[in-house]
Amino acid sequence: xxxxxxxxxxxxxxxxxxxxxxxxxxxxxxxxxxxxxxxxxxxxxxxxxxxxxxxxxxxxxxxxxxxxxxxxxxxxxxxxxxxxxxxxxxxxxxxxxxxxxxxxxxxxxxxxxxxxxxxxxxxxxxxxxxxxxxxxxxxxxxxxxxxxxxxxxxxxxxxxxxxxxxxxxxxxxxxxxxxxxxxxxxxxxxxxxxxxxxxxxxxxxxxxxxxxxxxxxxxxxxxxxxxxxxxxxxxxxxxxxxxxxxxxxxxxxxxxxxxxxxxxxxxxxxxxxxxxxxxxxxxxxxxxxxxxxxxxxxxxxxxxxxxxxxxxxxxxxxxxxxxxxxxxxxxxxxxxxxxxxxxxxxxxxxxxxxxxxxxxxxxxxxxxxxxxxxxxxxxxxxxxxxxxxxxxxxxxxxxxxxxxxxxxxxxxxxxxxxxxxxxxxxxxxxxxxxxxxxxxxxxxxxxxxxxxxxxxxxxxxxxxxxxxxxxxxxxxxxxxxxxxxxxxxxxxxxxxxxxxxxxxxxxxxxxxxxxxxxxxxxxxxxxxxxxxxxxxxxxxxxxxxxxxxxxxxxxxxxxxxxxxxxxxxxxxxxxxxxxxxxxxxxxxxxxxxxxxxxxxxxxxxxxxxxxxxxxxxxxxxxxxxxxxxxxxxxxxxxxxxxxxxxxxxxxxxxxxxxxxxxxxxxxxxxxxxxxxxxxxxxxxxxxxxxxxxxxxxxxxxxxxxxxxxxxxxxxx
Length: 716
Description:
Blueprint: H1 2-6, H2 10-44, E1 49-53, E2 58-61, H3 63-69, H4 73-76, H5 94-100, H6 106-109, E3 114-116, E4 123-130, E5 138-148, E6 154-163, H7 165-187, H8 192-212, E7 215-221, E8 228-231, H9 234-239, H10 243-248, H11 252-256, E9 275-283, E10 289-299, E11 308-315, H12 317-384, H13 395-427, E12 437-439, H14 441-456, E13 460-467, E14 474-476, H15 478-494, E15 503-512, E16 517-524, H16 531-534, H17 554-564, E17 568-574, E18 578-586, E19 598-603, H18 606-615, E20 619-623, H19 630-639, E21 643-649, E22 651-652, E23 655-656, H20 657-667, E24 672-677, H21 679-687, E25 694-696, H22 700-711
Parallel strand pairs: 13-15, 19-20, 19-21, 21-24, 24-25
Antiparallel strand pairs: 1-2, 1-6, 3-4, 4-5, 5-6, 7-8, 7-11, 9-10, 10-11, 12-14, 15-16, 16-18, 17-18, 22-23
Helix pairs in contact: 12-13, 14-15, 15-17
């Protein structure tokens, strides 16, 4: 008898085997889908690339690499002969060394030609000449990066290549021209007149080359006050300012550099340091910021004039943008794989929950019908049974409570059904779900709250919704918008301080007709974001919570999803007060105009308003006449969400500036609001015990600039 019990039923064994086979088939389908997606991304990339597996065999060989190497993919895929594209004899490529984990062997094969990647973990970059490529050989810059699965196991290595032959040839040509110039000077020293003429001609030639290149060449003093002594005419094309502006005003260049980047400006050369490079944001004439790369070299003249610094500025905005977009595409691919796996789990959970919930939902009407039949009996029992009179509970109360319980069952089952429906929507991964179609932003808000509302209510006591009715539709994908909102809500939830203080999150959606856009905002009263972190907030992998599991992908993925909707995302944060994330989405069929941070200045002193306008180009002045009250200003701020600072005179025709300051702070707690008055009024207000900083004329413009640098602006 014991022996029969220990033996497993053959039917159970067969059923278990079938389940395992089904699980294996499902995992194989997911793997094939992931491989197809990766093959599509790599195959369609304009960047030459190939991928090898753990066995060094080629998995992918894209069309761009076919054109570069003249080797077709069908000739090498599945083999370990990728070396044929680059070398005459078989030898390991950089990708092979990473597959084997032979990092110590990299210097042996690429001595003086490689560096660890500063952008990607477990990746290396190298530059080398390949004589086997093309007719005369090619210079390539290549990057190899390790690919790991969700469990952290190595699955292969991807190697991308960039043809820099023309750039190297240009460098060699410039070096050859320089050597030729030195040779001519040495050979013709005796012929002073001819040497001067040759030097003049060569100088003019080099100047013409510099003026034609997309760079600004400059020179400056190597000692205090470090003033610029020369700026090339290309400054006009690159910055919109004449070279004279830089030469006449020693502080002009620094004043146009972003406040957060001024520490990166080239300073006094340190001992034994004769050259350097830095990058910073420079505000050009149209008010926008561009990334400049500043290369400089210290020039010393033996027995001649004092040493000088010569350098060039180069606009690298597009290069940085392309690099960031490439990183973001990689992270989106990784996130897609994660969401696919998560979707399968969610679909399974939703299915398991749906069965018992369906049972409950179907039986609630039956329970209600049975109870309706029982109620008269309870009434009669209460009337004829004297024991009911001695009890604390009356039959009427039992009947009422039971009806409330049945109704609670109905409400709860409906809510669970809505959650299941939302989970099923989240788990859908067919192509139709990625198409853009007209949708209501309010639906995305409700979907996101349904997904993460329960989680964030653990630290948030209030989730306030300010959804404007009858919003115009936008063209988008509701699942992607839900993902953006989910990330922003979780980010706000995680920003809440400890110590038991409950937080508040406000989710708002309103139409902004002047921008042809719908504005989504998620605002919290949490810790806020330090100024030094704001510039990196949307960078992939940037996180301040890595020790607690933060990946730094949520906001970068949200940035990419908003860009897919042709929208704009920005953040306004005040440390200790909270943060507000704003998402501008164009109305269906419209194009979002350029949006820049703005300052609103109200007053009656036209000369003062003009001074602020001249000092800060982003100022919008408003001559406050009669009839202007706080509601008018609040309406203006609703219609102009890019305003992050308000400056108002104390004495307005029909309004006390102090009342306006209170009204704006109550409605927009993160907007910086400042009162401005004459020096006499400032002394009077101080004597009356006024709190907060008050700008004093006529130096208010300079003080306002410092306040903005200290507290930061809206980042868009």
